[in-house]
């Protein structure tokens, strides 16, 4: 009898241990729970709401467990499954600005779209706030694809993305890594890794220059930790100095005026955490750009200070499904919201052909 009782006891322990192991395994392998984010209920965009699409706010979680907030725009009439497109950018902006405007226009053309706030910004989750990361921000696009692929009205085999400004480069990097993305548009793109490491036009492309900046930023990390808060780099300069370059004046005309100002946008307010630039200095986008098989369209203004980013990136791409579109007379910021210059018909034609 004693042996029987001992056997039952050991079996009970084993079952309990196995149950606990199963629970732990389920926990270890599950997606992170979606955070209940406080989303603004009213329409607070920098552009008017279209009567031709349906709009609602949604949330989804990325691979790092960060919950992202997005605006979903859908055609009012949908027959069968339609392609989906995820939109983000510019770098330091929020979905209530340029990306939402692009997403709404694409929904008017028949696509189901989402314009999302990147991790740590806008209405999206993640702490600390105003952190940028080449890895996590690339993942944000793939997380948006995860969400779109699981929507009942979206054709999971026909997913595109669109990135604006710094998010144009991030979009191409995401497409290199994620073959579910069948078509990518990079509008007025930056390569944030290149400009962070080398400065504009590669004028600071020296080891001494980078090491000096690394030392200053590392010192700032020590100060931030001691202060218990992150120093912000500042948004678009305001007021403008008399000798401001034209592209800074263009940024000011968007972010610091009613045209594009939004209180949740870092570019409109106090910017990124100063130390956010560190990982971009040590990261390189487009190392495998020649392996990207899906379609890409790079759109740049003829007079954009950033045009060289798009042209140089385009040279790295292979295949006959890649296109470079230069908009006559346009500057960098024109492609944020000036739909007299944004070649929307050409962008839609590209998606129709590629998706």
Q: In words, what does this structure look like?
A:
The protein is α/β, with parallel strands linked by helices. The protein has a domain at 53-191 and 285-354: Alpha/Beta hydrolase fold, catalytic domain (Rossmann fold). Helices cover 38% and strands 17% of the residues. It contains eleven helices and eight strands. The protein has helices spanning 2-29, 98-108, 134-149, 166-177, 192-198, 207-227, 246-255, 277-281, 307-316, 334-337, 344-354; strands at 53-61, 67-75, 82-88, 112-116, 154-164, 181-187, 295-301, 322-327. An eight-stranded mixed beta sheet has the order 1-2-4-3-5-6-7-8, sandwiched between helices. β5 (154-164), α4 (166-177) and β6 (181-187) form a beta-alpha-beta unit. The N and C termini lie far apart (72 Å).
- Bin the helical content: 25-40%
Uncertain stretches: 2-24
Strand % is: 15-25%
Characterize the biggest β-sheet: 8 strands, mixed
Count of DSSP strands? 8
Q: Which sequence of strands runs across the widest sheet?
A: 1-2-4-3-5-6-7-8
How many helices? 11
CATH architecture identity of the domain at 53-191 and 285-354: 3-Layer(aba) Sandwich
Shape: globular
Give the ordered list of helices and strands. HEEEHEHEHEHHHHEHEHH
Described by its quaternary structure, the protein is: single chain
Structural class computed from helices and strand pairing: alpha/beta
Give the CATH superfamily of the domain at 53-191 and 285-354.
Alpha/Beta hydrolase fold, catalytic domain
């Amino acid at each position: 009898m004693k042996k029987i009782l001992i056997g039952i006891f050991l079996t009970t322990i084993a079952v309990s241990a196995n149950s606990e192991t199963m629970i732990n395994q389920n926990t270890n392998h599950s997606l992170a729970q979606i955070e209940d984010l406080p989303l603004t209920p009213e329409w607070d965009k920098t552009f008017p709401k279209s009567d031709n699409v349906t709009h609602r706010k949604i949330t989804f979680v990325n691979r790092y467990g960060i919950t992202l907030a997005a605006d979903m725009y859908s055609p009012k009439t949908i027959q069968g499954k339609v392609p989906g497109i995820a939109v983000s950018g510019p770098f330091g902006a929020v979905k209530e600005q340029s990306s939402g405007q692009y997403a709404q226009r694409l929904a008017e053309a028949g696509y189901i779209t989402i314009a999302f706030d990147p991790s740590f910004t806008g209405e999206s989750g993640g702490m600390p706030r105003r952190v940028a990361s080449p890895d996590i921000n690339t993942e944000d696009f793939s997380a948006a694809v995860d969400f779109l692929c699981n929507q009942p009205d979206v054709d999971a085999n026909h997913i595109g993305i669109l990135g604006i400004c710094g998010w144009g480069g991030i979009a191409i990097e995401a497409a290199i890594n994620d073959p579910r993305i069948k078509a990518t548009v990079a509008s007025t793109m930056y390569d944030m890794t290149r400009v962070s490491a080398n400065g504009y036009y590669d004028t600071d492309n020296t080891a001494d220059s980078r090491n000096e900046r690394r030392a200053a930023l590392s010192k700032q990390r020590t100060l931030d930790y001691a202060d218990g808060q992150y120093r912000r780099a500042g948004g678009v300069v305001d007021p403008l100095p008399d000798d401001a370059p034209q592209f800074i004046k263009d940024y000011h005309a968007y972010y610091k005026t009613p045209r594009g100002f939004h209180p949740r946008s870092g570019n409109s307010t106090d910017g990124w955490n100063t130390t956010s630039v560190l990982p971009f200095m040590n990261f390189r986008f487009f190392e495998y750009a020649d392996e990207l098989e899906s379609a890409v369209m790079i759109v740049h203004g003829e007079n954009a200070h950033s045009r060289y980013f798009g042209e140089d990136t385009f040279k790295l791409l292979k295949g006959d499904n890649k296109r470079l579109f230069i908009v006559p007379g346009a500057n960098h910021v024109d492609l944020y919201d000036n739909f007299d210059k944004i070649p929307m018909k050409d962008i839609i034609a590209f998606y129709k052909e590629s998706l």
